[in-house]
From TrEMBL:
InterPro entries linked to this entry: Cys_Synth/Cystath_Beta-Synth (IPR050214), Ser/Thr_deHydtase_PyrdxlP-BS (IPR000634), Thr_synthase-like (IPR004450), TrpB-like_PALP (IPR001926), TrpB-like_PALP_sf (IPR036052)
Protein name listed in UniProt: threonine synthase
Modified positions (N6-(pyridoxal phosphate)lysine) in chain numbering: 89
Cofactor requirements of the protein: pyridoxal 5'-phosphate
């Protein structure tokens, strides 16, 4: 099965990465096909909204590992921030917005008026960019004075309705949940599984870039806990397809001032009785989340991969 699969989509993507695509249009077509085949196989290509996401660099960071990680000499970094908005979340938003684009053209009894999210910066930037590309209204709830200027500029520049609220991310999340339950606004946070379907392709890319050799460990930073489950889904899908014979062990890294999963992992046995926290200020403001919505998914991923959780200061 590995040989058959490699003759199709992965080889085509490798050719594009190697410079065999004639132009950006060909590259865009391949990227659209990839999302369609892996996550939304039945969607019409005309409904797909893409901003040249995916195929980000995987580079060797031997010096970083040697100097800062106890002499690790085979460290690689997957730079998912090389994208239209500077965030790995582009991978998930292309899938979600494409599906919303399809639904808005369908004859629904309750038409979708637009999309909304709570954000610490990245999600709102990505949401606004993709919805602007699709011509769909977007509304974002942001915690006042808790996101970077660069992240604030993007939703404003892309024409989203931006609400700055006197609360933290968790408060914004509760509010957008209520709004999307009452109004025809589509929820775009990672609680929506479409986001994770797109983000799992980063794991597939890692295996592809390693020529289907499985790394021993994969470290995933985060706050709302959806991305580690997305990585697990990507690795596990490749195992089930027979492309690889195992999945890597996963490490979830949290900021010390916003580390509810780390506390859960370190001080509780049996993954029971998760306790959210009030996240304190951290330089990593995008993961300053104390009550993550995808904690159950993260636990599934960590259990399945014999993973661990660490914190960083």
């Amino acid at each position: 099965m590995r040989e058959d699969f490699s003759r199709k989509m992965p080889d085509l993507l490798c050719q594009v990465a190697g410079g065999e695509a004639a132009d950006n249009e060909a590259l865009q077509i391949v990227r659209k096909l990839r999302k369609k085949e892996f996550v939304l196989p039945e969607i019409d290509s005309d409904h797909i909204v893409s901003l040249f996401e995916s195929n980000s660099n995987l580079f060797w960071a031997e010096r970083l590992g040697r100097e800062h990680l106890d002499g690790m000499n085979d460290l690689w970094v997957k730079h998912c921030g090389i994208s239209h908005t500077g965030s790995f979340k582009d991978l998930g938003m292309t899938v979600l917005v494409s599906q919303v684009n399809r639904l808005r053209r369908a004859l629904l009894s309750r038409p979708i008026a637009g999309d909304g999210c709570a954000s610490t910066g990245d999600t709102s930037a990505v949401l606004s960019a993709y919805y602007a590309a699709a011509g769909i209204p977007a509304i974002v709830f942001l915690p006042a004075d808790r996101i970077s200027l660069q992240q604030l500029i993007q939703p404003i520049a892309n024409g989203a309705t931006v609400l700055s609220l006197d609360t933290d991310f968790d408060g914004c999340m509760r509010l957008i949940w209520e709004v999307t339950a009452e109004l025809p606004i589509y929820l775009a946070n990672s609680l929506n599984s479409l986001r994770l379907e797109g983000q799992k392709t980063a794991a597939i890319e890692i295996l592809q870039q390693f020529h289907w050799q499985v790394p021993d460990w994969v470290i995933v930073p985060g706050g709302n806990l959806g991305n580690i489950y997305a990585f697990y889904k990507g690795f596990e899908m490749c195992r089930v397809l027979g492309l690889v014979d195992r999945v890597p062990r996963l490490v979830y890294a949290q900021a010390a001032n916003a580390n509810p999963l780390y506390r859960y992992y370190k001080f509780k046995s049996g993954w029971t009785d998760f306790q959210p926290q009030v996240a304190e200020t951290t330089f990593a403001s995008a993961i300053q989340i104390g009550d993550p919505v995808s904690v159950d998914r993260a636990v599934v991923a960590l259990k399945a991969t014999d993973g661990i959780v660490e914190e960083a200061t």
